[in-house]
């Protein structure tokens, strides 16, 4: 349904996210091509985009890269260019050095730099302008995640005719933490430009509504927030009492827990080659009694250090031998130019080296550590090989790895140990829930998982699988878009 207005391509449905759903792969001869990145979000939105005529606006992941829009699986890919300095200030700086640690319970100290903020505003404006010029009259724009929190308000100012949704993939912090942000009011106002603001957990939506009440004094009647129209036209203002008879529009702020393409993960797990590979992995590890698995981006929010500490102590206090258990840790490289991530890598690799140095033998390693990503097939083989999956995040918006593990276990076996600080814990209550800060508790839970009778493992896994197979990513996006369509805000009289 592509139209040409003012020689610009316009679409009925536009998705905006920091990263595009395609990766640029450079061949050995220096030539490059684009490869769809197999994320859950793109899988969920592909059918909607194909039927509605959709465009996806985002950054290529590389500085100073210019290219023309192109089609990928029926989606129009529209680039937003970032200079090297913008990548440093907007992406590495404000997004991942300020917002990311602040929104994850200040596990690492957030850094507040005015230059970073200024670039964040400038880059958000660029994304908003790209969305404004790509969307048909009366169309829908769905903005994603913490890198683009100002886009809803900026876009509404440019195109009041649009329906605007926003989904926050990471936690939204309690007000006591959020209020540290020098630009806390501007961010809340930016988000309130949307018609629907989606969060992972009920607690995130409640934290946001509280921030709105504290900073703006608006009336919130869960899940509705009343935004006075006068406030929007006057722009940024200090807290002002809401007057009776004021015109307002309504914004919905509620939780929509994201999920995965569960059936596709299960299908892959059922493939004979993946099952053969799972067996091979167990053999290659020296047939330990139990395989423990951790799969994470190398990020300080994931609690990898806590997990290693618990496992190392189980070996050193001789609760376990390396014939009993091997820990496989996949730590995919992430945000490698941000200092906290560099320091984390050093710390984790030092710990892995020490534990292996102390306990590994020629035939058995203690921790099989991998600092790279793997294709989906290999991940599924690892999930099938793993008797125990360790998700020990200190704070996580959702944690899709927990859901992937469950989706692949069509044999109803395997034990999921899951941090209560991951959004997934709200739904996956039959996992073994842990507090990752409690190292003794974590150690006991690992031993309990290893000793759990098959009947109990199966009962738990069946319950978990029911949740994950019923609530897949398609249901998530359908529900968000349904609420977005029905809640298009209208000004109404108090
Ligand atoms: C999290 C965020 C995403 C982000 C991803 C990878 O899941 O919610 O917005 O894309 O991490 O991080 P990166 O910085 O590499 O995009």
UniProtKB/TrEMBL annotation:
SUPFAM superfamilies: UDP-Glycosyltransferase/glycogen phosphorylase (SSF53756). Coiled coil: none annotated. Transmembrane segments: none annotated. It comes from the Bacteria. One of its GO terms (biological process) is trehalose biosynthetic process. One of its GO terms (molecular function) is alpha,alpha-trehalose-phosphate synthase (UDP-forming) activity. PANTHER family: BCDNA.GH08860 (PTHR10788:SF106), TREHALOSE-6-PHOSPHATE SYNTHASE (PTHR10788). Belongs to the glycosyltransferase 20 family. This is Trehalose-6-phosphate synthase.
């Amino acid at each position: 349904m592509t139209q040409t207005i003012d020689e610009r391509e316009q679409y009925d449905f536009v998705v905006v996210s920091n990263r595009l759903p395609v990766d640029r792969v450079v061949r050995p001869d220096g030539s490059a091509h684009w490869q769809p990145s197999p994320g859950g979000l793109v899988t969920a939105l592909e059918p909607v985009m194909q039927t509605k005529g959709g465009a996806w606006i985002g950054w290529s992941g590389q500085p100073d890269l210019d290219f023309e829009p192109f089609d990928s699986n029926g989606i129009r890919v529209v680039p937003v260019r970032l200079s090297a300095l913008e990548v440093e200030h907007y992406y590495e700086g404000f997004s991942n050095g300020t917002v990311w640690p602040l929104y994850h319970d200040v596990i690492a100290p957030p850094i507040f730099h005015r230059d970073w903020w200024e670039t964040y505003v400038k880059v958000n404006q660029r994304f908003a302008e790209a969305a404004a010029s790509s969307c048909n009259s009366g169309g829908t724009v769905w903005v994603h995640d913490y890198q683009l929190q100002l886009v809803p308000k900026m876009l509404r100012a440019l195109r009041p005719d649009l329906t605007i949704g926003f989904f926050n993939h990471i936690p939204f912090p309690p007000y006591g933490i959020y209020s540290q942000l020098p630009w806390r009011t501007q961010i809340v106002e930016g988000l309130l430009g949307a018609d629907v603001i989606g969060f992972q957990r009920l607690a995130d939506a409640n934290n946001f509504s509280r921030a709105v009440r504290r900073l703006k004094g608006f009336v919130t009647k869960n899940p509705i927030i009343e935004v006075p129209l006068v406030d929007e036209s006057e722009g940024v203002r200090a807290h002002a009492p809401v007057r009776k008879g004021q015109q307002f529009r309504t914004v919905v702020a509620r939780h929509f827990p994201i999920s995965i393409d569960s059936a596709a993960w299960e299908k892959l797990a059922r493939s004979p080659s993946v099952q053969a590979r799972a067996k091979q992995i167990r053999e290659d590890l020296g047939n330990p009694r139990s395989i423990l698995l951790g799969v994470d981006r190398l990020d300080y929010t994931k609690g990898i250090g806590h997990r290693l500490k618990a496992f190392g102590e189980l070996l050193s206090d001789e609760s376990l031998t390396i014939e009993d258990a091997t820990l496989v840790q996949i730590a995919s490289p992430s945000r490698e130019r941000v200092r906290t991530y560099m320091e984390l890598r050093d710390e984790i690799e030092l710990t892995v080296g020490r534990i292996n140095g102390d306990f590994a033998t020629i035939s058995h390693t203690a921790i099989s550590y991998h600092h790279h990503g793997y294709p989906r097939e290999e991940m599924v083989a690892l999930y099938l090989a793993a008797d125990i999956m360790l998700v020990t995040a200190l704070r996580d918006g959702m944690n899709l790895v927990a859901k992937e593990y469950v989706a692949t276990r069509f044999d109803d076996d395997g034990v999921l140990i899951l941090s209560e600080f991951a959004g997934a814990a709200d739904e996956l209550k039959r996992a073994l829930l842990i507090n990752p800060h409690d190292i003794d508790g974590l150690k006991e839970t690992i031993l309990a998982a290893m000793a759990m009778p098959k009947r109990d493992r199966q009962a738990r896994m069946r319950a978990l699988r029911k949740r994950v197979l019923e609530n897949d990513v398609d249901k998530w996006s359908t529900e968000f878009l349904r609420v977005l369509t029905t809640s298009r805000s209208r000004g109404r009289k108090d």
